Amino acid sequence: MTQILLVDDHQIVRTGLRMLLESDEKLVVTDEVGSAEDALVYLEKCKAPNLVLTDLQMKEMDGIALIKVLKKVYPEVKVAVLSMSEDQGKVIEAFDAGADGYLSKAADYTEILFGIQQIAGGNRYMTTSLSLSFMQNYKNFTTIAVDINTILKYYDISEREFAVLELIAEGLTNGEIADKIFLSKRTVEGYRQHLLEKTNTRNTAQLVRFAFRNNLLK
Asked: What crossing angle do the helices spanning 159-169 and 174-181 adopt, rounded to 10°?
């Protein structure tokens, strides 16, 4: 059961979100607060939830500042943004602050639930419309997005996983990769599965396509 704390300065939004999230038997809203400050007070007094779902635009302390504090003080707590803003600069700022996911309030309710489940499960997630927007406009963000280390950090891909990804793109089998970088075949299989999960892809073809589209491979 994933325990969630809602942070949004609009009561009607919080009420709707609670109803949506609790329609999934694996999710439960432990409480809801109307500001980032109230969220920090709540966490000081109560048991930390598994996930904090926060808006960005709030009075006084905004969502970005809250994310930074949460990741410093409560690093084990997942933090997801749910915002009307689909500004790519804000999305990047949120992930740089430590967000584990970014969801648009304009997304279909089924995708919001799916995204929450992915984030709660330890994966990074970004609303599909935003992912497509980044893909279509990546040239406008080359100073930020083209740097491989930034992309690897964003998707939480380790150096060893990246090395395996490069060899997968060359068409090597798990056994051939294992021999090449002196690992067991089982370990390579584990890295391959981690890559699929972190990039939200279903097979090798999608994984390689993802890598080229995100400038990880040339």
From this structure: 130
CATH fourth-level superfamily of 2-127: Response regulator (3.40.50.2300)
Phi, psi dihedral angles at 207 (to 5 degrees): -65, -45
Nearest to 120 by CA among 68, 74, 70, 52: 52
Quickly tell me which residue has 């990880």 as its tokens: 216
Which residues lie below 8 Å from residue 43, measured CB to CB, with a gap of 6+? 5, 70, 73, 74
The answer to whether the predicted template modeling score (pTM) of the entire model surpasses 0.70 is no
Instruction: Tell me which fold the domain 146-213 belongs to.
Output: Arc Repressor Mutant, subunit A (1.10.10)
pLDDT tens digits along 132-164 = 777 766 555 444 444 688 888 889 999 999 999
- Categorise residue 51: left if φ over 0, alpha if ψ from -120 to 50, beta otherwise: beta
Distances from the Cα of 40 to the Cαs of 31, 112, 198, in angstroms? 13, 24, 29
What is the widest separation between alpha-carbon atoms in the chain?
Answer: 58
Instruction: Give the C-alpha separation, 49 to 31, whole Å.
Output: 9
Rounded CA gap, 59 and 56, in Å? 10
